[in-house]
Each structure stands twice: as structure tokens, then as C-alpha cells.
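Review form for a predicted model. The reviewer records the input and the model, then writes brief findings.
Reviewer: anonymous (R2)
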Amino acid sequence: MAEMTFANMSTDSGLSEVVTHHLKGIGRMFYIHSPKEQLYQKPEDVPNFFRQSYPYFLIFMIIEHIVLRLEGKKGIRLNDGITSISHGIIQECGRLIWRGAESYLYTWIYAHYRIVELPWDNVLTWYAAALGVDFCYYWMHRACHEVHILWAQHQVHHTSEDFNMGVGIRQSILQGWCGFIFYLPLALAIPPAQFIMHHQFSYLYMFWIHTESIKSLGPLEYILNTPSHHRVHHGSNKYCLDVNYGGVLIIWDRLFGTFKPEIDKLEIVYGLIYNQPSFNPMYLQMFYTGYVIEKFRRFESWGEKIKAVVWGPSWEPGAPRLGDETMKVDVENREKYDVLLPGWCSLYIVLHYSVILYGFFELASKYMGMTPLSVIIFVTYVIASLTIIGMILDNSKYAPMLEVLRCSALAFLTRSLATTPLITALQVFYVTSAMFWCLHTLKLLEIKKKVD
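Model under review:
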């Protein structure tokens, strides 16, 4: 009896720890923390809270989709949702390759040039870091909208014509490199571990404010960046342009004159002003950089060439730094780009996407024990697979043959692995898939395209 009681107590204790762990994980999404439990001395001591939050991203998106459906709305579209997740994975693939290199300069400045020694184990340092990171985020975010070459990377985040939590992880692979310089002044005082931790916390908070399901947070609207404020930021309507840059706090926008409230009776149109009709994540990652290069080449004088790169996206000769306000387009309404897929194709994409996700998570859990070359090879596979899936969603004429090659290559590569029921199943899966797309190439199966 005593042994059974002890076993029950151990089970209850274990369950309690699991529940507490997940409650803390959910709390981190809303910047709800116990500072005393998160005081780290070294950067390597800081957990990868962002990676730990993957399950919460998915759960929040599922809940949001259900809420939207209950409200009579379409919810998260399969093609747009997959594209958003693909961008998030591509950004994480970049982090696997960089291995934290983008924060090296911060650590070096702190080690050699800090002007004050703030105790890493003091709660006041924790709060100072939170405030400092958010202040620098405001200026980083503002620069990403006002400096053309930075906008070329940040625009990835604005490419969705929907506004849901999936957009919160739709980021550029180079976003970290574009923004790190704006945080360097903090290195004069804030310990690197505190900076790295709060940098993660701020992005976790900003995930859930990408939603139309939450209308208002009442009095908190005056202090915090909320879904209402961020909806305005993502709009293509003229009144939405270049406003509401705050991360966690909206007070910076109120202080520096960039705040605009949401107008209830005016429908916000999301996406870029000149939106790109595509679900191909690599195309969306890269196309605007090509436009910046084209604009740079268009001018003859070096003064205008430099302005084409470092002044605002709307700048033209003779106009102010951020462009002529009277010439900016006021997007009021437009049809969303969409592709209607047959049921078999949607099922195919979901199955293959699940395998790609599994492969990515395996890579993310083991990459530190792998050689850099091995990581690059696996990252290339993941990004290529996501790109081809995006091309299928676009009904690209090149997608079937590329998918045949991808599946055939994977079927061949799995032969070099130890024979197990799982490996055999994967071989059959990829061979069948390759044959599947051969049929499509022969026009025996078709994807119908539709603008909705």
C-alpha cells in the first residue's frame, strides 16, 4: 500500500511538473515571466526559448483557425499558412548555419568596451534589458521600413494578404543580420545573456499579436503593442503606411510620432502595396532585392544610386527621403491571390510537408554535433523542398519535374541507410510520389488554378 501511495505521489508530481512547464511556456508567449528564474550569466546558458516554443506556435494557430471558423470566416488558408511556416523554417535554417554569429560583435563590444558593470543576477538588470531591447527594436523596425535595402529583407514579413499568427513567423533568412547593428549600443551596459534572452522574448510576444480574432485589449492598448495596433502596421491602406513600429510596447510610437489607431469602419487590406502573387517562399525572400539592384542601376550619378539603396522604398529624384506622400498608392480593395487545389494534391502536400518538418526538427536537435558542411547539405535539402512545395502551390509549370527529381533523389539516398521498416516505408513513399508526378506530367492528373 505504501509503495502504491509513493508511486501515485511520484506520478502526480511528474504531471504537475509537466503542467507547470507548459504553463510557463505559454506565459512566455505573452512576456509573462518570473525574472528571478531567468537570470543567466553566460550567453550559452540561455535556453533556445524560440525553438522550445514551436509546439505553442502550432497550437495557437490551430486555436485561431477554429475561432475564425466559428466566427464564419475562412480561417487560415492552407497555401498561405504553409508559406508562412516555410518562411519561419527558412529563417531557422539560417540560424542553424550562423550558429549565433550575428551576436558575436555584441559580445565582443561588451567584453572590451562596456561602460558599466550591471550585475547579471539582479532583477533590475532583467527589467533594464527588457526595456532596452524593446527600445532598440523600435528603431530597428522603423529603419527596416525607411531604408530601402533593409526593407528588401523585411518585406518578406509583409507579403501575406492574410493577417494571422502564421504571419508572425514569416521572416527573412537575413533579418537577424539586417537588424543586429541597432542593438549594439546596449552592449555598453547590458550583459549579452540578458540581451539574447529578451531578444527571444520580444519575438515570442509579437507572434500572437498577428491576428484578427482579438479586437481590443482595453486600457492595455495605451501601453502595449496589440493586435489592433499591429493590424494597422500590416495594412497597405495609405493611413497604415510607416506607422506602429513598436515591438512589445506601443509607447515608442506615441513618443516619436509614428502611432496610428485602427479605424473601425475601414477594412484593412494586407500585403505589399504591389503584391507578388506567389506562394514560393524563396521567390518571396529574394525578388525585392532584385528590384533594389534594378533601381540602383537605373540612375547614373552615384548620389542617386546611393539614395536608391539607403533612402526610403518610395524615394525618387526630387522627392523627400521617404518619397512623395501624394504619389503613394492608397490600396482600398483587391482580390487575394489563391490557387484551388484538388483534394489529392492538398493531401499530398500535407503528407510531404509533414515529412519535411520532421526532418527539419531532427536537424535542429542534432546540428551542433554535425560538421558545418553536413548542416549546409541538410539545410539545402530542406529549403529546396520547401521551395518546390511552394511551386506546387503556385501551379508552376516547373514544379512537377522538380518534384519528380526531388522524390527520386530521396528514394535513392534512403537506400544508403540501414534497412528498417521506417526506411523501407520512406523509399516506397518517395518512389510512389515520383510516379505520381510523372502522371501529372503526362496530363493524367491536373491542378486547377483559380483566383479567389
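Findings: The radius of gyration is 24 Å.
Further findings: The mean pLDDT is 91.
Recommendation: see findings above.
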